[in-house]
Design goal:
Blueprint: H1 14-19, H2 38-60, H3 66-75, H4 80-83, H5 88-92, H6 96-116, E1 120-121, E2 124-125, H7 126-135, H8 139-160, H9 168-171, H10 179-185, H11 187-190, H12 195-200, H13 211-217, H14 233-246, H15 249-252
Length: 258
């Protein structure tokens, strides 16, 4: 049964606007069998965070601000309402001038969002939430960023296990890029505050996998096939959380075709 969602206040029509932003909308992922949007994604990021909270609190206890992290998970992509969804692979290949221009654009959008919509979101400064999502200065924002990437990875793995070749690179199985497998494994080095967590719970970090073979064997998902073990534990973790919190409909309803 779908999980009850945290309700955010102070921003009318926010969910409708997020739902209009499609995920992975670029030439490299021209076809996404189970294409999602920013609303679906933000909810899933919250659910991945919620599923990990017992482990997070085992390591950090009361030092981890759960309420802030929950709201942060839902608003982490809100600036995309003004600047659009800059694809991560494209950002990684920008030159310094392009990155600086994007940074200025995103910071201007945050100021505009606060002025146009609301100064507060569920008791927290909306500006602080949006800046934390951008700069990741605190542990809560770093974990939200991790589960943001984990959900992006899960979307890609879901496509690959359905036989979609467009998602081999982001899944981590095309050339030397390693996509989200590489990005997720960079977190312990990038954010020292997270190192104790990954030392105690290393299974959150995905290992390399034979994604090309999985893609070649893949078939569109069904309610029955989702109950079968794919053989890749990180995908099973992602899939289990989504099925428990959201249900199966979006995972099996194919909306795009080769």
């Amino acid at each position: 049964m779908p999980t009850t969602l945290l309700v955010l206040d102070g921003f009318p029509d926010r969910e409708e606007k997020l739902a209009a932003i499609k995920r992975y909308k670029c030439v490299d992922q021209a076809v996404m069998f189970y294409r999602t949007n920013d609303l679906i994604h933000s909810r899933r990021v919250l659910w991945h965070l919620e599923a990990a909270l017992p482990d997070i609190q085992t390591v950090y206890g009361d030092h981890f601000r759960v309420d802030f992290a929950r709201v942060e998970a839902l608003v982490h992509d809100d600036a995309e309402l003004l600047v659009g969804d800059a694809q991560l692979h494209a950002k990684e290949n920008m030159n310094p001038d392009e990155l600086a221009a994007l940074d200025r654009k995103e910071r201007a959008a945050i100021t505009q969002m606060v002025e146009q919509f609301t100064p507060l979101m569920n008791g927290f400064s909306y500006r602080d939430l949006l800046l934390a999502a951008k700069d990741k200065p605190c542990l809560e924002a770093q974990f939200v960023s991790f589960f943001d990437k984990m959900d992006g990875a899960g979307e890609a793995w879901h496509e690959v296990f359905a036989g979609n070749p467009y998602f081999l690179r982001p899944a981590g199985g095309q050339g030397t890029d390693q996509g989200y497998v590489r990005r997720l494994n960079a977190f312990p080095q990038k954010y020292s505050q997270m190192q104790p967590f990954f030392q105690q719970f290393p299974n959150y970090l995905p290992q390399p996998f034979d994604f090309p073979t999985a893609m070649a064997r893949g078939r569109p998902h069904t309610c029955e096939s989702l109950q079968q073990d794919s053989g890749y534990p990180p995908y099973e973790r992602w899939k289990r959380t989504v099925m428990e919190c959201e249900g199966l409909d979006l995972l099996v309803t194919q909306i795009e075709f080769p």
